[in-house]
């Protein structure tokens, strides 16, 4: 599964996959779904989920500055508040695009 094309269209990310499918992900859903440890929390060995801290979103948190493909398996998004530690693997992006 690979994206042929990734584009920002207004307040959505549009991804055209090489299998012909397309995903549209609203930016706020994308940011709230950030998979980094600080946003998604860390799991202990018992499978309990811990949030590192309460997430404080600002308006610029949902403004996309740029995105870069990473290592042929994921996309990294950089947000207006400087946050960019979320690495979104392709299957995860495809899942986010299904509402
Ligand atoms: Zn994050």
Please give a structural write-up.
With 99 residues, this protein is of the alpha+beta class. The chain has a single domain (3-96), classed as NE0471 N-terminal domain-like (2-Layer Sandwich). Helices cover 17% and strands 38% of the residues. The protein has 3 helices and 8 strands; from the N terminus they run E-E-E-H-H-E-E-E-E-E-H. It has helices at residues 27-32, 37-40, 90-96; strands spanning 3-9, 12-17, 22-26, 42-43, 49-50, 64-70, 74-79, 87-89. The strands form 3 sheets. A 3-stranded antiparallel β-sheet has the order 1-2-3. A 3-stranded antiparallel β-sheet has the order 6-7-8. A hairpin with a 5-residue loop joins strand 4 and strand 5. The longest helix is centred in the C-terminal third of the chain and has 7 residues, at 90-96. The two termini are 19 Å apart. The model has no long low-confidence stretch (mean pLDDT 91). Bound molecules: zinc ion.
